[in-house]
Specification:
By secondary structure, the protein is of the alpha/beta class. It contains 7 helices and 6 strands, in the order E-E-H-E-H-H-E-H-E-H-E-H-H. The radius of gyration is 14 Å and the shape is globular.
Length: about 170
Amino acid sequence: MKKIILVLNHVQAGMGSDEHADLAPGGKKAPLGPGQTLTPYLKEHDSEIIATLYCGDQYYLTHPEEVTKKFIGFAKKFGAEAVLVGPAMHYPNFGEMAGALTKSFNDYGIPAISSMSVENPATEVYKDQEPIVKMPKKGGIGLNDSFKNMALLVSEKAKGNDTTELEKEICF
C-alpha cells in the first residue's frame, strides 16, 4: 500500500467553523473528513491515508513558514509517498493554503496535488505551478468523480508514475 498524507483546514478536518480558523497545526493517524470518502477510492489503487494533517486556514496565512516546516517534517517522519492537500472547493483561504503547501511539498521533493473549484481564486494563482484536480464548488454536480480523480492522481504520484496525460484530463 502506498502511503498518502491528507492535509485539511480546520473545517474539513471537523474541528469547527470560522471561530477555529486560528487552530494550530495538528494531525491524526487516520483519514478525517473527506479522507473517509477517499478511502475506498484509494484502496482501488493500492494506496491509503496514513495520517491527516490539519491547521486553521487563518493560522496558516499568518504562520506559513512554521506550518510548512511542520507539515514537511510530519510527511518525512511518516514516510509519505505523496500528499493530497484539500479538497479546498471554493473556499479562498483554504485554497491559498492548499496551493502554497502543495507547491512547498513538490519543491521539497514530496509529490503533492491539491483539489479546488474554478471559483476558488487560488486556482488561477497556482494552476500553472502544480496539479490541481478540478472539482465543483460545495454541493455541485461531479463531486464523486472529483474524489475518484484525486485518489487516482495522488496514487499515481505515490507510485512515481508519469501523470502528464492524466493531469491534462482532470486538472486545470
